[in-house]
Amino acid sequence: MAATIKAIATAAGVSRGTVDRVINGRGGVSPEIEQKIKKLIVDMNYTPNRAGKVLAGLKKPMKIGCMLPSIDNPFFYDVILGLKQSERELSDFGVSIEIAQVKGFDPNDHIRAIKELIAKNVSALCVSTVDVPAVQNVLNAIIQKGIPVISINSDLSHTNRLCYVGCNYAESGKTAAGILNLIRKEPLEVLIITGSLNMQGHNQRINGFIKTLQDKGIKHHIAEVIESMDDDHTAYTRTLCALKKYDRVNCLYITAAGVAGACRAVEEQNLQDQMTILTFDDVPATRELVLKNVIAATICQEPFKQGYESIKILYDYFVNGAAPKKTHYFTDTVIKIKENI
Questions:
Q1: How many domains does the chain have?
Q2: Using alpha carbons only, how large is the chain's radius of gyration in Å?
Q3: Signal peptide location in the record (predicted)?
Q4: 72 and 35 in a common domain
Q5: DSSP alpha helices (H): ranges in 154-302?
Q6: Can you name the residues that pair with 64 across neighbouring β-strands?
Q7: Using one digit for the tens of pLDDT, what is the confidence trace for 157-209?
Q8: What is the pTM for the complete model shown?
């Protein structure tokens, strides 16, 4: 049986990238190591596979542009760590990433950041962006020019993106409703605090939540849906205003960032003991509030994996020349409470 690059790398005590450099004559390897690898190639009966041939045929390094609404949003720290881990593992194969960060959900800011990445001659894009026509049109024009796009963390409609990598938002919304059904008596007066109604994922969390409450026949009323723009100050002021307006609210359903701000409003009104609060993700501020029993549970979505897998999928796409096997790569839905966070 013919050996693989991985087997040769293990036998030589080097990385797979180093073996690839020798196979494709790209230099950067000491003469002693190069000679050792060449001998192993012969002794172990290595035959270049299709991936090796495609890599050898690449005319330039592969730079992947990543656009994230990550400024002042600690959730994305782990997404970025995942992106960078993939970059490190694939750096010997000429893969690098260029990250453009924006704050909030202004379509113009997102479009500007995407165009700046394209101006840097990226080979592909990973984007977490608002699902609005202006952005969809820009991305479709980019795709038509031969630059593949993956949606990461929040999906996009009406685009020819390769695939989506991220949370199953509808499932996580249903999960939140299931948790609430277990721990809160009816009737429910719910204040929903979301990031942006232009983010597909945030809307799916709301729709999955409400549909499950309805399907289970749980008596509930949605007092209002307010946008925090993933900003703690905005979440605080808008939640405080809503709590004063709706004095029967007994549940906060926070579908995105702004958790610390919203909870601060609850605590200032001394409502934490009568309020059930459900949130998403395991960031430091949320973790602290779970441990303080202010938040009943937070539902998580493996952000590191989202970043890591997105780069790997694009790399495989360029190597194999075929579309991904799936249109949706969902990460796991993980419930965390005080006892396991």
A1: 3
A2: 24
A3: none
A4: no
A5: 169-183, 200-215, 232-245, 259-268, 284-291
A6: 97, 124
A7: 999 999 999 999 999 999 999 999 999 877 999 999 999 999 999 999 999 99
A8: 0.82
